[in-house]
Amino acid sequence: MNFRWLCFYGIFIWTIILSSPALADSPIDKEAALNADFDELIAQAQQAFGESDFEAALEYLVISNRLEPDPRLFLNIARSYEELGQCHIGLAYYEAFLQNPLDDPALIQRAEDAVTEGAPDCAAYHEDLGGRLRIDSDPVLATVYIDDELMGVTPTETAGLEPGVYTVRFELQGYDDDIQEIEIVPDDELIVRGRLQEESDEPEQTDVDDGPDIDDEPMIGEDETELNFVALGIAGAGVAGLITGAVFDMSVIPGVDEDRQTAFEAGDRALYDQLTADRDSYVTIALVSYVVGAALFAGGAGWFVYDMYLDDDDDDIYGWEITPDIGDDRAGVLMFRRF
User: Own/partner pairs for 147-153, CB < 8 Å, 24+ apart?
Assistant: First the structure.
């Protein structure tokens, strides 16, 4: 332990022993504390503790640890919570120290004794409590609430919360609230940071009817140009037909031709005749698939293009129209003209 820390702990312990209760101002000027150096913060923590202003001492200790993190500060934070009658939080900080022990047997023994001796007499304490909950924000000095209970001004922290889900709300004048959900689990340390956005200065829009507006016209892709899924389906069926024809033309028929050649060379006339009949059938299937597929694709694509780019029902309700005609005994399209 270096000389500065040795002096600090000696002065801090003697301050606890020799001080008498007194009133002190609280809360602290946190903005000024955030701009102070470490030694000044430690001195203010000692003074606040000596004046029995344990809440102020906690604030200074938390900011000190934020400036120069050191587990030994957990011992003084724990002592402050004990003096405030919040023994379960104090014990949680002793345990936080033991999870980050230093090579100092005396301080380790002190923390272990505090947990062993204090746990049986602390009704609010049990082993499943959460560890440290560190709360910060950007910008700092935001008021923070946990489940609508005021926790303080950022940066701040606490410990020993019951496991479960909590709602954390950050508020700062001139900024929109930031609301987050966190989950506390046993023993784990958690950091939650609020990110506040500045409030917008734009005035709210009011509904005033000042005549037609070009922005109110429907955009392409809305009601005026809805996709014709029937046309797309017909075109898709045409593509499937073309693919089927190509498969028979480029794969199935050449395979049969190879088998026919093998049967011819082997002198197997019956197999050759059967393969020839199969080939004729496959050729027919390929031709029909090509023709039907091309017709379906041309019709579906043409219908789709007509609906998307050529049809203008708003300008002329009279004219040629194409519509599907599908029933139990028929399937096709109808073309008609209104008069």
Answer: 152/27, 152/59, 153/27, 153/30
Q: Cα–Cα distance between 214 and 104 in angstroms, integer? A: 76
- Which 8-state DSSP code applies to residue 140? S
8 Å CB contact between 138 and 103: no
- The model carries a pTM of 0.53
End-to-end CA distance of the chain: 101
Q: What is the DSSP letter of 318?
A: S
**Residue 333 contacts residue 323 (beta carbons within 8 Å):** yes
Classify 284 as helix, strand or coil: helix
Using CA atoms, how far apart are residues 285 and 244, in angstroms rounded to an integer? 9
* Burial label, 294 (beta-carbon count in 10 A; 0-12, 13-18, 19+): middle
Q: Is 249 exposed, middle or buried (0-12, 13-18, 19+ CB in 10 A)?
A: middle
Strand pairing report for 164-171 and 178-184: antiparallel
Whether residue 285 contacts residue 195, with contact meaning beta carbons closer than 8 Å, is answered with: no
Burial category of 125 from C-beta neighbours within 10 Å (exposed 0-12, middle 13-18, buried 19 and up): buried
Question: In a 10 Å sphere around its CB, with 0-12 CB exposed, 13-18 middle and 19+ buried, how is residue 225 labelled?
Answer: middle
pLDDT tens for the 339 residues of the chain, in order: 444 444 444 444 434 433 333 333 337 899 999 999 999 999 999 999 999 999 999 999 999 999 999 999 999 999 999 999 999 999 999 999 998 877 888 999 999 999 999 999 999 999 999 999 999 999 999 999 999 999 999 999 999 999 999 999 999 999 999 999 999 999 899 999 999 999 876 655 555 455 555 444 444 444 445 667 787 888 888 899 889 989 988 889 998 888 888 988 888 888 888 988 998 988 999 899 889 989 988 888 887 787 776 665 544 444 555 566 665 566 565 555 544
Q: Are 60 and 48 in contact (CB under 8 A)?
A: yes
